[in-house]
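Below is how a single chain appears once it has passed through the pipeline. First comes the sequence as given, then the structure the pipeline wrote out for it. We keep one example in the README because the format questions we get most often are answered faster by looking than by reading.
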Amino acid sequence: MQLHPQYVANRDYHLNVGDGHQIHVQEYGASTGIAVVLCHGGPGAGLCPENCRFFDLERFRVIMFSQRGCGHSTPHDSSTNTTSELVADLEYLRQQLGIEKWLVCGESWGATLALVYAIHHQEHVAGLILRASFLACNSDFEWLYTTKGAGAHFYPECFNEFAHDYTDWHALLDFYQQQLNNDDQIKASKFAKLWCHWEQVLCHGEPLTNWSLQEPHVGLNQARLMVHYFRHHCFIKEGFIAENAHLLTHLPIWFIHGRADLICRYSAVQQLAEQLNAQLLILDGIGHSSDNQVYLSAMRRAADLMYIKLSRDQCKA
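Resulting structure:
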């Protein structure tokens, strides 16, 4: 299954969301189509225009935005940058665009944000499509940053280089927080490279090889944002999503997840999908990265099936 053709953005602008932050927004597709907003991963990755190709842009109105401090949003700063503020930005964006209900999509950390937004604003959510979902529980951080995780067992030499003998993930993140915000930019960049290398290994199963002259600034900003969020448990109470999942059981929800994902645990998502009575598309032999035809086809399939579902619901209304 091929992706839809590439389109040029209809609108490309910045929206002032307060606290000195402006978020970068792009819109694609039909102005009268079913509205869908995409929450990118990270935290810190920024929007990816290519992701509009999951959707038939003659039927969907696709809205992408870079979260506070990410991509072309300004400033690149972690101040007044928490999950509750990102949720408020999403809701403000919806209001500014005059959309009553929209389909909310998210990948990895973006799935976390999509779920938290939907719990708080379910009356404005038409459905959810979530890929490689991260649920921000203590067990998820242990999976990423301790010897209990699959990554440390598959790539022990990389983990040892990354972890600096820390066995507690709280202490490890505190250590990286200190190093990434070091006044010595060369030292800060060195630890940003270590951080991004571990992410690359977990995501793609290969070492980081493209740390170019332009990459250190981008990598340092993303590493700082990720550590900022993860040190604070993503500013989410432990078990928040599972405890409030009953608020979303009326929504059509698609989870797409690789069984071999070393970043986001398949078992946790499988349990949540059962709790929500959601559709779960399992990709055997596939990890976290969507840079493969299997994942791309699955995303397009989910988008097409969700369009059919939402169109039927509109006809019944």
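The mean pLDDT is 93.

See the next section for the split statistics.
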